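Hi Y.,

Following your request, here is the sequence exactly as I used it, all 176 residues.
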Amino acid sequence: SDFNRRTFILQGAGEVGFRFARLAKELGARIVACDTESRQVERIRHEVGATIVDTENIFTQAGDVFVPCAVGGILNDETIPVLQCPIISGPANNQLADPERHGMMLMEKNITYVVDFIGNAGGLIAAADELLPGRHFNEERVKRNIQRIALRVARNLELASAEKKSPHEIAIQTCD
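Below is the corresponding structure, written out as tokens. Let me know if you'd prefer a different format.
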């Protein structure tokens, strides 16, 4: 809840990553970022003041939260062992290359993993509010529903800890 003096490691500085970085910076966070596109790198460096690192070195950066904002499958046998953040939470889809194997690796390394499709539900909630028949977009309703994401994340992490299963495995089980 307190971004002040926290360090966020962003893998990807596209539109979603950039917006997150800008908001986090406004709340007092330090941003370390990478991107394969030089235009995105310059934008986040200039407009947010992010520290820029090479894409191959982003996983070894020490911080409070690793934020995957690019392609999927980036949490794998090579990247998990070198991660230097106690929390992973970000907008990229399908972050775990092998959900079962890599979910357990994160657990064994005591890294808190916020499952992508739970943590990223806000966009879907907003779209659904607008598209449901007979409803008009209601910002307050959307905000209330988005605030429930934190409760779902907390419940997912509690169950994972209690059952000694990865958060991803618990999320799949509770979706049924």
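The beta strands are 7-11, 30-34, 51-52, 65-68, 87-88, 112-113.

Thanks again,
Q.
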